[in-house]
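Memo to structure team: turn this sequence into structure tokens by end of day. - J.P.
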Amino acid sequence: LDVERNSAAFNAGIRPNDVIVEVNQQEVSNPSQVQRELQRATPGQPVFLLIWRDGETNFITLRKR
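Reply from structure team:
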């Protein structure tokens, strides 16, 4: 995963090489699925991501604009 510095994803805590496993409790396995689930999210509401980083899973929350 490429993440631009100062992007919403970077500011939420997503880093290069993180693997997004779930978006709002929906399993995702490729970038197009991640994009689709992010598009379904309601603007202003939190989006919950489960990521895989360095052998561990972590939750990250961001808000869709």
